[in-house]
Amino acid sequence: MRFVWAVVAFVIAAAMIGAGIAQRTVFHGPSETSANVQTEGSTAFTLIDGAVLNSVPGAQTLRVQGDGAVFASYGRTADVKAWLADVAYTSATLDDAGTVQTSEVEPTVTPASGTATAGRSPVDSDLWLDEFEQTGSLSTTLQLPRDMSVLVASDGTAPAPANISLTWPIDDSTPWAGPLIVGGGIVLLIGLVLYLLGIRHVRRQRRPRRKGLPLPVTEPISTVGADAESKGVVSQSPVRRGGSRVRGALGGRRALVAVPALGLSVALLAGCSADAWPQLAATESPSPTPTVIVPEGQFPPAVTEAQAQRIVSKVSSTVAQADASLDANVVAERLAGPALAERQTNYKLRAAIADRPALPAIPAEPVQIVLPQTTGTWPRTLMTVVESADAATPTTTIMMMTQQTPWEEYKASYVGNLEASTNLPELAAPYVGATQVPPDSSFLVMAPEKVAAAYADVINNGQNSASFAKFDTANDLLLAAIQDNKTKRTDELNQTGAGTAEISFSASAGTATPIALATLDTGAIVAVNVYESDTAKPTNKDAVIKLDNNPAVKALTGVDQSATGFTTTYSDQVFFYVPSQGSDDQIRLLGYRSSLLEAKVSP
């Protein structure tokens, strides 16, 4: 019976080991699949739709072959199509059968300028989440969702590379190959043990058995043995000395037979890689996170957090380059509105006055807060808060940036510094975004378009202003700074004019359009522009106002004295928190930047 079970074990072991080896050899499928995107090379851009990228699950490896420059980028499909809307391009999509097909798409909008017909470089567009550039060939691995697409081009003028392929990995793991091979080795070992036990059993049955005492008179076995010994014949049967020799021989054979079985199992086990075993590692339970409910039908945020960090880095590097060269044209690539105007004035002053300090640099990192507008159209707004990495000049910069069209870059319109004691209101997560509040919104305690004028009235009239009670003036550092500047300017004029001159101050709403993004408590962060002006005039018709101690006004006006006086204007970029309608909270100052804007001779 032991032989029967041994044979059964051998058959099972052979089946298990054979099945395990077959999974790693003859039944082992391909490790990847691929698809080609062949174009005619008639357009400068090729758009690979997200449906193509996700036609096979898993990461997508993009390979592009070209003759010269090879460019690839990816972004939201809607954003990429908006960027391509004014040019003809090749679109790669899936047909009903799931096959990749290409077609040429004609422009859907009229180009705003001649750049579309002359060629437009796709490099460094703020719409891309990432981009890649190589010469001759390009290969990169992506993991894009269905709502993102890939743009392939050369330089934006020459035809896009026509040889494009996509590759996806296929799960070719064989998790049961290892257990089958090892299990088969164990069953084989059991079969060998059963087989040896069967042999031992048979040999025990064939041994001579002792008779009970007394022995018979005749003992043929002993006589035969004695005769054989007397004739010089050595017996082939093992001599039993306490049974030790028989057991020793059997045990030695069993060990010799078991060693190859164990060696086979170890050899097969060593050839099994990690994907030949079931992955039984325990999955870590994710830590609970706050639940954020996105309103139904809300557009996605204009940019992702990583995208915003890249935009801030570009703004920082461009402004730093312009600051170093005093190039107003370069700085206009990344600044607009009040932020651009203050920089242009600073460049004029630094060109004329050797020791005139530069404006604070715009830090690139770390980006602490990203609040993008939720929208599917343009213009788009983005608010960021960036801390300075320079320990010598620690500052926290708040910016409002706007992208006017898909073909333009984000430009910072408002740039201010947050005070260390500033507490920002609760804001939505970057992946949720915030709605932009219209300038005439009635859902706030004050419409954004009225905030600048109301604050200017507080500057002019103080406690007599009708809007004084609406602002948190007790914690307003800008009001205190403005008052200090008024006192300083008055003292300077009294010292130089000796009673022959007078100075007056006034504030007004700036010309820039306010920008407001909603907070989670239905309030808003509002950025506005306020002008502060002081006019110095002589009180005696024979007197003149000299600029001996004011090189900045002298540099801006081009004169060193005037009989009619001078008007100096400062630009304030002010960030407020404006509560929602019905709230008892006051409008609170969050941050600001104040700088000299212009100076002119009074009429």
Automatic annotation (TrEMBL):
Keyword Transmembrane among record annotations: yes
Residue ranges of domain DUF8094 in the record: 301-600
InterPro entries, per the entry: DUF8094
Transmembrane segments: 176-197, 255-277
Record keywords, A-Z: Membrane, Transmembrane, Transmembrane helix
Name of protein: DUF8094 domain-containing protein
